[in-house]
Write a structure and sequence with these properties.
The chain is α+β, with helices and mostly antiparallel strands. The protein folds into three domains: 30 residues, no CATH class; 59 residues, no CATH class; 30 residues, no CATH class. Helices cover 33% and strands 10% of the residues. The protein is built from four helices and four strands. The strands form two sheets. Strands 1-2 form a two-stranded antiparallel sheet. It has a two-stranded antiparallel sheet with strand order 3-4. The chain is elongated and about 90 Å long.
Length: 146
């Protein structure tokens, strides 16, 4: 009788019509019992097969979504990034490395409307005021581009 590896090599060289399915099953079964062949681990993507994957609510934005992995907590990368940024900010505040963000009342440089400035550098109430307060760009001849 041929050794297993010789049988496998012989089977590989045979044509499809010459292969005996029972012999192949016997060889594969024996190799599984010896631990030389293992079944591939299936990837389950439905909650009926894998109970760890279920529909949950995103703790950042509140939308319902289907988990793609057992450890997923948020619906998108954007929500995960927002939550991470908030956690880092809180960590710095707790250790005294950053103060709480304070909103201060200011008057817009262009329209004089009162607004909440979240940074000491904010001087305009909107992007529109900021855009129109800049001097008009000029080309080499001194003509305006707008």
């Amino acid at each position: 009788m041929l050794k297993e590896w010789e049988q496998v090599a012989e089977i590989r060289n045979m044509k499809t019509a010459d292969i005996n399915a029972d012999e192949i099953r016997a060889i594969v079964t024996k190799m599984r019992e010896e631990g030389r062949i293992t079944d591939a681990k299936p990837k389950y993507r439905t909650p009926s097969i894998n109970p760890a994957l279920k529909e949950i609510t995103c703790d950042q934005c509140g939308t319902r979504f289907m988990k793609q992995s057992p450890t997923q907590q948020r619906c998108s990368k954007e929500c995960a990034r927002k939550a991470n940024n908030e956690a880092v900010r809180q960590w710095h505040i707790e250790r005294g490395l950053r103060s709480e963000q304070r909103l201060s009342k200011r008057h817009c440089k262009r329209c004089r409307q009162e607004f909440d400035a979240s940074s000491p550098n904010h001087t305009y109430c909107s992007q529109e005021c900021r855009y129109f307060s800049k001097p008009e760009p000029r080309n080499k001849n001194g003509n305006t581009k707008r």
